[in-house]
């Protein structure tokens, strides 16, 4: 059994059930939602997952769901489900953060590829969210020390620049590294680089 849940969001019971059948044959656990509003209000938006979302729904359309996931910085990888003639709208949802779109009726081979892309995307987004959350636990002093380490300064140079002892720098740096779950200086720098890239997007 796969670990990521696939949420199937569609207001048509027949479509929900046929989609669930296909997804279940691929060993993904599923949860069914009758429309976009029920999904957004009922799902944990902070958890990595996959969502197959119909474009046309009452109460909350598929494109509105994509926008809300983006606004909540949710890691959920969403796949839009479209009918004939809706491809141009589906493409716009990709620009807003959807991972892929599927045209009805769903082709199993296309579904497998879309689920694989969504799985990679949601895990990557979840990891990015985790890194930012960890970085935000650093104190202002730890962030300052981390910034100077990132610039390439040695502990001694940081101590001189900040008018503090080398021991204080070592303690602050060690604390920052622990909070970011990094074991080496190279890993620490790589994580800070990722933080920098994420915060300057």
Automatic annotation (TrEMBL):
The keyword Glycoprotein does not apply. Keywords: DNA-binding, Phosphoprotein. Residues 5-119 form the Response regulatory domain. SMART domains: HTH_LUXR, REC. PROSITE patterns: HTH_LUXR_2, RESPONSE_REGULATORY. This is Sigma-70 family RNA polymerase sigma factor. The modification 4-aspartylphosphate is found at residue 54. Residues 131-196 form the HTH luxR-type domain. InterPro entries: CheY-like_superfamily, RNA_pol_sigma-70_dom, Sig_transdc_resp-reg_receiver, Tscrpt_reg_LuxR_C, WalR-like, WH-like_DNA-bd_sf. CDD domains: LuxR_C_like (cd06170). SUPFAM superfamilies: CheY-like. It comes from the Bacteria. Pfam families: GerE, Response_reg. NCBIfam families: sigma70-ECF.
């Amino acid at each position: 059994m796969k670990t990521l849940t696939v949420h199937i969001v569609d207001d048509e019971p027949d479509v929900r059930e046929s989609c669930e059948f296909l997804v279940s044959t691929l060993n993904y656990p599923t949860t069914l939602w009758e429309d976009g509003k029920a999904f957004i209000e009922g799902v944990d938006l902070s958890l990595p997952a996959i969502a197959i979302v119909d474009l046309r729904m009452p109460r909350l359309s598929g494109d509105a769901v994509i926008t809300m996931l983006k606004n909540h910085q949710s890691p959920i990888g969403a796949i839009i489900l479209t009918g004939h003639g809706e491809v141009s709208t589906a493409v716009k949802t990709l620009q807003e953060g959807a991972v892929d779109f599927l045209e009805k009726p769903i082709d199993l081979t296309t579904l497998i590829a879309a689920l694989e892309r969504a799985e990679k995307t949601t895990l990557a987004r979840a990891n990015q969210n985790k890194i930012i959350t960890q970085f935000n636990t650093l104190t202002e002093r730890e962030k300052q020390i981390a910034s100077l380490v990132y610039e390439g300064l040695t502990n001694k140079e940081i101590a001189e620049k900040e008018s503090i002892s080398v021991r204080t720098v070592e303690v602050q740096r060690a604390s920052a590294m622990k909070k970011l779950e990094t074991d080496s200086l190279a890993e620490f720098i790589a994580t800070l680089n990722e933080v920098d890239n994420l915060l300057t997007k």
